[in-house]
Amino acid sequence: MALVLLLFLLAVSVSADEDAFIGVNIGTDVSDMPSPTQVVALLKAQNIHHVRLYDTDRAILLALANTGISVTVSVPNDQLLGIGQSNATAANWITRNVIAHVPATNITAIAVGSEVLTTLPNAAPVLVSALKFIHSALVASNLDRQIKVSTTHSSSIILDSFPPSQAFFNRSWDPVMVPLLKFLQSSGSYLMLNVYPYYDYIQSNDVIPLDYALFRPLPPNKEAVDHNTLLHYTNVFDAVVDAAYFAMSYLNFTNVPIVVTESGWPSKGDSSERDATLDNANTYNSNLIRHVLNNTGTPKHPGVAVSTYIYELYNEDLRSGPVSEKNWGLFNANGVPVYILHLTGAGTVLANDTTNQTFCVAKNNADPKMLQAGLDWACGPGKVDCSPLLQGQPCYDPDNVVAHATYAFNAYFQQMAKSPGTCDFKGVAIITTTNPSHGSCIFPGSGGKNGTRVNETSLAPSSNTTSSGCLSEYYYGGGSFRSSVILGLLALIAVFL
After folding, report:
1. Same domain, yes or no, for 74 and 135?
2. 159 and 293 housed in the same domain
3. Positive/negative CA dihedral, 336, 340, 344, 348
């Protein structure tokens, strides 16, 4: 009987009015915070059309005017008690922070408080009142259809989240969750959920595989199976979202959609945070973006949008706590990307090279034989001009396969107009925003300027872009550089001498 009920619940679809979108959160705990106009310029350059603010910063809202960017504004937790206890206070808040900016600024949602149940439980009794008072003020201003009202939740309010079909909200919050879900349902709003597979992974004591947290492909026998529904889960993100859907259905709410208001992965951590790395952050966010924009949905609701805001736009160096707390951003404060996402295609949201100064370099730890094969291919079938690598030429030194392969790889990458897949060379090349030029050796694509920024994150591996196994044109032995081209030239010179 229980299985029949669960299968029935699976058949009840959560409707979606539009395709899923990717947005970003904009935090401001930054010592050298960019100006609002700089922030908006970055958003435009990155084709970001959805942002979430943690407050109602007037300067940023004015800068966002007439951009068309959809904005979620927030009632900070320290204002929640006042608004939840007074309809007039809520109305004044709407007048100052919303009516003053619309329609020029496209405010589409209000997050009333942040993770209140888990971080500010003493305000929980007035949470639903605060939402209702804010919504009533919007109704009075005829803005309720344009602007949704909700509140963000930590996924930790869900207990026993796997298998998802057995998940339920912490029952102690039923006096809040039930009226809250009734409000969301009646107002056509959505549940705001913060989903952090990074924390699920590190708190699991290695029970959760890293690949499962990062959306990496899993063999079928490694997929997580909900034995009640026989649904297969290939990533933590989907499992948590479906756990929330099942938890709502347990309270008899089956038509409230979910928007993920925070998700991401830190790019740096301290010695105890070994998986907070550039590569993992890049992999997670790149895969998350693809997963969301493909409208994949979740196993419980395939094809139903799960729009998601990435945490976050900038690294916030002023945040307290472990090193990872300061390193969730996609960009540094100067607009320089922390890493280049594994995304390709013109117009892709967050194709985040803001400088258009990207280069292709050899991986330092790559197999020398693979580097040699890639170097041979680039200087041969790849039709790269490798003459600057000859002895006595500007790029001969340093005389090693990594340095020479870097020059050849980059020359090919630039020659191919940085086309997707042209910086791979069987996995021994990576994209970087650091200009590898040095001394008089000016790399193609550099415009004659040397860079200082390090970024060792590659694009997604390409398939059959390059080949190895060609005749060895460049060979390194005992640290010396030889070339069949040089030998040929010497033989030719000997003939004419």
Report:
1. yes
2. yes
3. negative
Q: What is the dihedral of CA 288, 291, 295, 300, to 10 degrees?
A: -100
Structure token digits, residue 475: 């060979």
Asked which of 302, 326, 350 is the last residue of a domain, the reply is 326
How far, in Å, CA of 416 to CA of 160, rounded?
51
pLDDT, tens digit, 9 for 90 and up, residues 476-489: 443 333 333 333 33
**What is the extent of the structural domain holding 414?**
359-496
| Threshold 0.85, pTM exceeds | no
Write out pLDDT tens, residues 394-424: 999 999 999 999 999 999 988 887 765 688 8
CA 128 to chain centre: 31
User: Residues 264-285: what's their mean pLDDT?
Assistant: 93
Our answer to whether residue 262 is catalytic in this structure is yes
**Is 456 a known active-site residue?**
no
Catalytic residue among 262, 312, 316, 325: 262
Catalytic residue among 115, 316, 325, 473: 115
Q: Is residue 334 a part of any domain in this protein?
A: no
- Domain end (from 276, 305, 326): 326
Residues whose CB is less than 8 angstroms from the CB of residue 66 and which lie 6 or more positions away in sequence, other chains included? 104
One domain, residues 91 and 155: yes
- Quick check: 495 pLDDT over 70? no
Q: What's the confidence (pLDDT) of residue 289? A: 92
Residues 6 or more apart in contact with residue 47 via CB below 8 angstroms: 347, 348, 349, 350, 351
